[in-house]
Design a protein that fits this description.
Methylamine Dehydrogenase, Chain H, 5 domains, single chain, Immunoglobulin-like, about 725 residues, five-stranded mixed β-sheet
């Protein structure tokens, strides 16, 4: 029986793949969108459809809006990653990291984001956490994170004290599912437990859907699907035949699809379609068309198509049907641009009046929300400029140049799959006639031209004399300009030559420092192979280990330099003691570390705002340098890390009583590849990376050293985030 099920399962995959290509009835056409298509990160969490047919996605870069023709990325406050969306009326409510609010179109049709975070009256450092769910009950909007539950009544935000919980609504009732605490109803911003037995260890009910046979179903990640009695609130496992299978594969989201199937996304095995009895009838994953296997939330658009979000892009599943699904075909003019910028325009306006600065070029952008542009063709007609409708084309914008002043009306319509046409969308526009093209301007110009010609004839001889003088002056000025341009070009060439020399030096030194340990290691391997004495072989192995350490140290330096150059700053309030704990743990097995007395002189809990990873690179480099170049012949080698608050800054001192640095070398120690002697350890990149990283953090570094007495590096950083 088990083999028979597997055979049926694989056979269904085969049939589906064939039907998707042949477009037979009941098959599914899959389209995918990657980060390169919509120009944002690949990670998407949630999806909703607005009243106008535009589909919105919660993306790590912001909110993505797709109208079937163009993608628009809308950033939220602090460029937070967006994790939850809810469409209500004409607004799209947004949940993000420590941020919540909504987006809507302004009077000019441009998306604007409005933050609601300030209504909480919480200090910015007290995080709301990531908003994972947004649910609407009546006139209230509920935002849920692992730290709290928030209710927005349209004016104020009310905090409900609940942690580690998910929410879902059944009718006009909001349910809360805290981990291991059963089910509760929200009544007047308080929780009233209604089912203590529904207590799931490290799991919650985070979704609700109405079953195909009238059941009320709850979705959990690790415990599968449950039925709930909405009168007694009692629960029991769903009797669907593949409930255990969904449980094992961490079901993420569920909905009913096409009024005959369940669709469940999972975190482990992709997308599954089940019939009324809970039997799997279709399944999709990365192997047969989807962008990935780790799927998240889903939404069904007005045409019955399914959008599925994932960590690897977006998936669009369209059921192929011979029926005409063009009843929602409605073309709209999305925006109008001119002079290389968007013009103030709203689809609610009856006429667009262009200003005096208009130069004669206008671009109309149009779309058919709910339909993809590859399913459509468009025909357009600029009344007052063209004779009739254009041929059908796949373009989603039309540009007109050199338009004269006057009144025009732009018409556009869509055709679905070469058959059904939409109603036309029309926009009257009014273009002012430039003053220099009016009749009075022509008359005035003619009079002025006549006067100039007569005056020119009268003064021709005198003007020729003046022009000769002016020409000589112009030639002199132009000659001077050419000389200056030549000097400027010479300076630019010198700059480029210096840059090239620096680049060549970096490549040469990097290549040398990478190849030298490899050559040494290769030579030692050859010698060790010839050596028969075990004791001598151990010496060679230690030398090999030293070469590998040098190579590893140099590669680490290059990676730190590259990371500091490319990665964005992630500033947060950090505890300096925790950073040092991490560094000291990394140094536990460092060579000769047992001979060093590491002293920490930092007040417990000292905190300030910076990028913790970059700060760790800075302090780790300074401390390891002190260990490498210490004086181990003295009685008590020490390294002290000390902090000091000064005004709005924090000072961090790294002090050692080691060899010190000769005064002649101090001006160059932060240069790339600088080493005081050829015998010095390291790549010469460490202090260069330190200074470059300090600068990236908006700080300063200074050094004071006395040869054979010790060295002090002082770091200065602002305490607050800027």
């Amino acid at each position: 029986m088990c083999y028979f099920k597997k055979f049926c399962f694989l056979f269904s995959f085969f049939i589906l793949s064939i039907s998707a290509e042949a477009a037979e009835p009941d098959s599914i056409i899959i389209k995918t969108f990657s980060a390169g298509d919509y120009k944002a990160t690949s990670i998407n969490y949630s999806a909703v459809e607005g009243e106008d047919g535009v589909v919105y996605f919660a993306n790590e870069s912001g909110v993505l809006a797709y109208d079937g023709s163009e993608w628009t990325l809308i950033s939220v406050k602090d460029f937070s990653a967006v994790t939850a969306l809810l469409a209500k009326d004409e607004r799209i409510f947004v949940g993000a990291g420590n941020e919540l609010g909504y987006i809507e179109r302004n009077a000019e049709g441009v998306y604007e984001y409005t933050s609601l975070r300030h209504l909480l009256e919480l200090p910015r450092e007290e995080s709301v956490g990531f908003i994972w769910q947004i649910v609407s009950v009546g006139k209230d909007i509920y935002f849920s994170s692992m730290e709290m539950l928030l209710r927005y009544d349209g004016t104020d935000i009310h905090k409900i004290d609940v942690k580690k919980a998910y929410i879902f609504a059944i009718g006009e009732k909001l349910f809360v599912s805290p981990a291991e605490k059963g089910l509760a109803l929200v009544v007047k911003d308080s929780l009233h437990t209604v089912n203590k037995e529904f207590s799931l260890k490290d799991d919650n009910a985070f979704g609700y859907l109405k079953g195909l046979k009238g059941e009320q179903l709850l979705v959990t990640a690790d415990n599968g699907i449950f039925e709930i009695d909405t009168s007694t609130y009692k629960t029991r496992p769903w009797k669907g035949k593949e409930n255990d299978f969904l449980k094992k594969n961490s079901v993420y989201f569920g909905l009913t699809w096409q009024d005959s199937l369940y669709a469940f996304s999972t975190a482990k095995s992709g997308l599954f379609f089940l019939n009324r009895e809970g039997e799997i009838v279709k399944s999709f994953n990365k192997e047969n068309g989807l962008t990935g296997t780790y799927l998240r939330e889903m939404v069904t658009d007005k045409r019955g198509n399914l959008w599925v979000t994932s960590d690897s892009g977006l998936n669009y599943l369209q059921p192929y049907s011979s029926e005409n699904d063009s009843s929602l075909l409605k073309t709209v003019i999305r925006s109008v641009s001119g002079n290389e910028q968007n013009l103030p325009f709203s689809s609610r306006e009856s006429e667009l009046v262009l200003g005096e600065a208009f130069t004669g070029t206008v671009v109309f952008h149009y779309a058919t929300p709910g339909f993809h542009k590859d399913e459509l063709e468009y025909s357009y007609f600029l009344e007052g400029f063209e004779e009739g409708w254009s041929n059908w084309k796949s373009d989603v914008k039309k540009e007109y140049t050199n338009l004269n002043g006057g009144s025009y009306t732009f018409h556009v319509k869509a055709r679905y799959k070469g058959k059904t046409e939409s109603l036309k969308a029309s926009l009257p526009i009014s273009i002012p006639t430039p003053w220099f093209k009016t009749t009075p301007a022509f008359i005035l110009g003619f009079l002025l031209l006549s006067t100039v010609i007569l005056s020119g004839v009268h003064y021709r001889t005198k003007r020729l004399h003046l022009l000769n003088k002016r020409l000589g002056k112009i030639i002199s000025n132009r000659t001077q300009e050419l000389v200056e341009q030549r000097e400027q070009l010479r300076a630019t060439n010198n700059e480029l030559r210096i840059k090239n020399i620096e680049l060549d030096n970096f490549v040469y030194r990097s290549s040398h420092d990478l190849v030298a340990p490899l050559k040494s290691l290769k030579g030692l391997i050859n010698v060790a192979q010839l050596e028969k004495e075990i004791g001598n072989q151990e010496i060679y192995f230690r030398l090999m280990h030293s070469s590998v350490d040098k190579l590893e140290d140099f590669i680490k330096s290059i990676m730190e330099y590259s990371s500091n150059s490319k990665k964005e700053l992630v500033k947060e309030n950090i505890d300096l003691n925790l950073i040092l704990d991490c560094i000291f743990e990394d140094l536990k097995y460092y060579k000769r570390i047992e001979k060093i007395d590491l002293i920490r002189n930092i007040e417990e809990g000292t905190r300030f705002c910076t990028d913790s990873k970059r700060l760790k690179i800075i302090l780790s480099n300074l401390i390891t340098n002190s260990i490498k170049y210490h004086n181990y012949q003295q009685d008590k080698p020490t390294i002290e890390i000390k902090s000091q608050l000064k005004d709005e800054d924090i000072l961090i001192h790294v002090i050692d009583n080691g060899r010190g640095i000769e005064e002649a070398y101090l001006p160059n120690i932060f240069d790339m590849f600088f080493r005081a002697t050829d015998s010095a350890e390291g790549s010469g990149l460490g202090l260069y990376i330190v200074k470059d990283t300090v600068k990236k953090l908006g700080g300063e570094i200074s050094v004071a050293s006395e040869y054979r007495r010790g060295t002090t590096f002082t770091l200065r950083f602002p305490r607050e985030c800027t």
